Amino acid sequence: METDPHITFEDMAPPDAVRARIEQEIQKLERFFGRITACRVAVGKPQKHHRHGDLFSVTVHLTLPGGKEIHADRNPPLDHAHEDIYVAIRDVFAAARRKLQDEARKLRGDVKHHDAPLEAVIATLVAEEDYGFLETEDGREVYFHRNSVANDGFDKLQTGARVAFAEESGDKGPQATFVKPL
Description:
Elements: E1 6-10, H1 16-32, E2 38-44, E3 57-63, E4 69-74, H2 85-108, E5 118-126, E6 131-136, E7 141-145, E8 162-170, E9 173-181
Parallel strand pairs: 1-2
Antiparallel strand pairs: 2-3, 3-4, 5-6, 5-8, 6-7, 8-9
GO molecular function: nucleic acid binding
Keywords: Ribonucleoprotein, Ribosomal protein
GO cellular component, one term: cytosol
């Protein structure tokens, strides 16, 4: 980490054991993703309950290369598990770790990029039997059924209309799993 972690305690005296636990959690994040440039943690005890224990709020703010920021907080108003400060710390760092994992996947290029939907023209429509065939731009025929048409729009389809579709291999050849009029 380029800068030392900044840990603040609001409305409470900072116990050494709690500070040590937060530092351990920060080290776990650094082992997972070693390019964190800054980390700020705020621990607070905003409620003053007399019948039940006080609920702790914990916030983690991470800064990554390129100015990307990750923010995680656990401040649930009725989660009495957060009467225990260690549970609140565990939960917020788990949330921060999940967000950091998502960001690491994006940086590595592991995030799926969906291809644009294919386009075709309705070549044949057999309305009385609830199916039809699409003709793709490369001349292939793709079967589709009434159930694959978006928004129950099968009855509105006409031969020659352009549609977007998703395709998979069926028992008898290619079939459209999703058809949407353009």
